[in-house]
Amino acid sequence: MLVYVSREKRPGHDHQKKAGAMNALTRASALLSNSPFILNLDCDHYINNSQALRAGICFMVGRDSDTVAFVQFPQRFEGVDPTDLYANHNRIFFDGTLRALDGMQGPIYVGTGCLFRRITVYGFDPPRINVGGPCFPRLAGLFAKTKFEKKTGWGKEIGWVYDTVTEDVVTGYRMHIKGWRSRYCSIYPHAFIGTAPINLTERLFQVLRWSTGSLEIFFSKNNPLFGSTYLHPLQRVAYINITTYPFTAIFLIFYTTVPALSFVTGHFIVQRPTTMFYVYLGIVLSTLLVIAVLEVKWAGVTVFEWFRNGQFWMTASCSAYLAAVCQVLTKVIFRRDISFKLTSKLPSGDEKKDPYADLYVVRWTPLMITPIIIIFVNIIGSAVAFAKVLDGEWTHWLKVAGGVFFNFWVLFHLYPFAKGILGKHGKTPVVVLVWWAFTFVITAVLYINIPHMHSSGGKHTTVHGHHGKKFVDAGYYNWP
């Protein structure tokens, strides 16, 4: 039996988007079939493996399975460009993080590709009602109406949770704090396949919505810090990480700009690195290396996929994460509601000529401002450092090389972003390199020539310090 349910959307009434649709479908399906399991798929996903449902149900009917609330399948996508420029496959998360959570209380609910046990949605077993044929459509339609939910627990204690951007994560979290578990199921051929936004702007909007929803959870009564004792301690740590990760944007902004600006100002955070500094630095780098090796091994990804994931993480942190932090703090302080744009996954219209045409379409958004500033700050900082070495102002060029390497490491991470905003397929790499080189050379030439133009027009001043050291043009730098 195949039944298409279209719910009522009354003007002036918040239909609660996906959460409202799932709750209406859950009520209507209770009359139509009342099956013990509910499969949730987004409209842009399809079943790719006919054995997927059987594989998921096995986790719910086997031994010690009475406490399994849902089975989460990893998301798989088609139509993504071969280089996965914006890390749409995100296998570090789907094949690494979710698999790791399976060893605790279970993976989080990610909004699609999930098989639920019906009683976990209701909180109790639904009644078995035998309804005659003529009453079927009438009652099912009544359950799909918006007024049915008035003065009920739907969207609060029952069903998918309302009034949150990430209703999927919160709904799964509510089940976990009640003591339910979840399971991770990855099969081949892939269970379900969907589409992903390959355009940079749409991808950033998608990440903005996710990160905004995560922060909303942190500043709400669903904060995992205050969850019930039924939540596994390590599962609590995982949820805290999931709800706070956008805050990394604040620190990353400093990491990607301060070292470059230090070359311009000449004032460095670390004047003379000590032995302990190098020890701590070695410990941090070694830890990051071990984590990277474990991620590659556990997720079963290549080093290129892992690095591509890191590249987009930096792009998202400098743009979408930062915007999410600002939006949520504005909501918390000024009590302003947050509206978000649904992610568009429709092609641009040139898919017959080029299936990845949408990848090279530039759609301006303010989210691009911060990464662009970071790119030019690092280019200018490197150019100034290069100019100071050539001009003889800095003689220890080996010490400068470490900072310049870090600047180019930042630029290398933001290369996919630069490629996305500069357009056409095949021409972009050359354009990006030309602009970077042009900015670098112009900055270096100006830095070298402008001081000499001023000094040639007037008297050169040299001031002696207390110990006889020379402070040339009132500027003396301890390092390098």
Automatic annotation (TrEMBL):
Subcellular localization is given as: Endomembrane system
- Could you list the residue ranges that cross the membrane? 245-270, 277-300, 312-334, 367-390, 396-418, 430-450
Q: What membrane topology does the annotation report for this chain?
A: Multi-pass membrane protein
InterPro entries on file: Cellulose_synth, Nucleotide-diphossugar_trans
Glycosyltransferase in keyword set: yes
Q: Which SUPFAM superfamilies match?
A: Nucleotide-diphospho-sugar transferases (SSF53448)
Q: What is its main location?
A: membrane
GO CC term (a single one): endomembrane system
Q: Which UniProt keywords apply?
A: Cell wall biogenesis/degradation, Glycosyltransferase, Membrane, Transferase, Transmembrane, Transmembrane helix
What the entry lists under Gene3D superfamilies is as follows: Spore Coat Polysaccharide Biosynthesis Protein SpsA, Chain A
Provide the residue positions that the database annotates as binding UDP-alpha-D-glucose.
K17
Q: Which branch of life, at top level?
A: Eukaryota
Q: Which residues are involved in binding Mn(2+)? A: K18, D42
Supply one GO molecular-function term: cellulose synthase (UDP-forming) activity
* GO BP, sorted A to Z: cell wall organization; cellulose biosynthetic process; plant-type cell wall organization or biogenesis
| Record protein name field | Cellulose synthase-like F6
